[in-house]
Amino acid sequence: MEADPRFAGFVAERGDALLRYGHVLAGNPHDAADLVQEALLKLRASWPRLRAKDNPESYVRTTMARLHMAAWRLRRRELLTWDPPEHGYHDATPGEDERAMEEALAGLPRKQRVVLVLRYYEGLSDEEIAAALKISRGTVRSQASRALGKLRSAVGEHIEEGVMSNRGER
When comparing pLDDT for 113 and 159, which is higher? Predict the structure, then answer.
């Protein structure tokens, strides 16, 4: 397989954005890097077919969400203990609101976090989320509703009413 300069250009151009997406999805930079790497390997194998499409990034992001959910399914029965590090990793110094939201998102169950990321970060509809995660539209809505309730409880005053409802009716 010859190296395609367009693939290298895509990775160079969109790599940082994919890492940020992976961090939001997985909750930490290490799993984010793994998700990006695995998704880009899958993209590389499909590049001849996908490079002509309008947006190969959507393929990578959907692949990352599916990989994240697959890993979650494999690990969800494990009993894990977690000692949080004394200092978290941050590219920039976030404000109080961003830290509160990050902590609240990290505290959500994986499926709920994935649904919120796909809905509000990626802008996918409930139907698109259901198709990407292979779950029903009702499950998408119930997971989103539960997650938003938990975020509101955890973050309290930091979430303004309009922030999470900036998208139209589903």
Answer: 113
Q: CA–CA separation, 28 vs 31, rounded Å?
A: 6
- Measure the CA–CA gap between 83 and 66, rounded to whole angstroms: 27
Tell me how many helices (H) and strands (E) the chain has: 7, 0
CA-based nearest residue to 65, from 125, 21, 13, 7: 21
Answer for the pair 112, 146: CB distance below 8 angstroms, yes or no: yes
> Rounded mean pLDDT of 59-64?
89
| Domains along the chain with CATH numbers | 1-76 (no CATH), 94-170 (1.10.10.10)
Measured over the CA atoms of residue 31, residue 32, residue 33 and residue 38, the dihedral's sign is positive
Taking the complete model, does pTM exceed 0.70, yes or no? no
Which contacts qualify for 120-128: CB closer than 8 Å, 24 or more apart? 120/164, 120/167, 121/21, 121/24, 122/21, 122/61, 123/167, 125/170, 126/170
